[in-house]
């Protein structure tokens, strides 16, 4: 079976037919499935969609049980957690719904971890890290675009000279380079390439 368009988060099952991994959807399995919007809802109280998955958390005064339900807890209500809590050996701990969040100094609210600046996030070749609340994603560097070639997605150089997205002067020639371009004034003209006289 061959899938000319590729299956980003899935397997090719037949001619251009993808079987998506759990948590993903779309013709090429490139879209995150929002489990929080499914019927019946996967969480009893609150649901947070994550890349390829989801997290359940409970309203204040309730704690998350191992089966994903929320049980009333007087001890939880007293702690006043932002995203619910759990009881471990008689100790109440507040929870954060994502690994990209950490408990703040007050031990009740969750603050974002900037994976891009802490170096926790590793983006592959020609990609840059974009931080989001509770997570991050990798985006092509400026001057590169995401293309599906030879069976995988990769960031390839944009040829600004061909796509006509350069700002070279009318009397200059455009020279493409990896991730960028240069302008050079034609013979008989002088200047930066953006201005030629």
TrEMBL record:
A biological process from GO: cell differentiation
Family listed: Belongs to the nephronectin family.
Main location: secreted
Protein origin, superkingdom: Eukaryota
Organism the protein comes from: Chloropsis hardwickii
GO MF, one annotated term: calcium ion binding
Gene3D superfamilies (alphabetical): Laminin (2.10.25.10)
Domain EGF-like: 32-71, 112-150, 157-195
Annotated keywords: Calcium, Cell adhesion, Developmental protein, Differentiation, Disulfide bond, EGF-like domain, Extracellular matrix, Repeat, Secreted, Signal
Species classification: Eukaryota, Metazoa, Chordata, Craniata, Vertebrata
Localization: Secreted, Extracellular space, Extracellular matrix
Protein name (record): EGFL6 protein
């Amino acid at each position: 079976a061959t899938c000319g368009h590729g299956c980003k988060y899935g397997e090719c099952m037949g001619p251009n037919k993808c079987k998506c991994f759990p948590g993903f959807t779309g013709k090429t399995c490139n879209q995150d499935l929002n489990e929080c919007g499914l019927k019946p809802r996967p969480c009893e109280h609150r649901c947070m969609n994550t890349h390829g998955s989801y997290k359940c958390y409970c309203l204040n005064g309730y704690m998350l049980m191992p089966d994903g339900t929320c049980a009333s807890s007087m001890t939880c209500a007293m702690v006043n957690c932002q995203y619910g809590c759990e009881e471990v050996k008689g100790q109440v701990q507040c929870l954060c719904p994502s690994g990209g969040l950490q408990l703040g100094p007050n031990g009740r609210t969750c603050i974002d971890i900037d994976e891009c600046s802490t170096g926790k996030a590793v983006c592959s070749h020609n990609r840059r890290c974009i931080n989001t609340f509770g997570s991050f994603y990798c985006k092509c560097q400026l001057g590169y675009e995401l293309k599906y070639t030879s069976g995988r997605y990769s960031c390839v150089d944009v040829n600004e000279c061909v796509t006509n997205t350069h700002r070279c002067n009318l009397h200059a020639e455009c020279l493409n380079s990896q991730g960028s371009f240069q302008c050079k004034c034609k013979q008989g003209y002088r200047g930066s390439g953006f201005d030629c006289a």
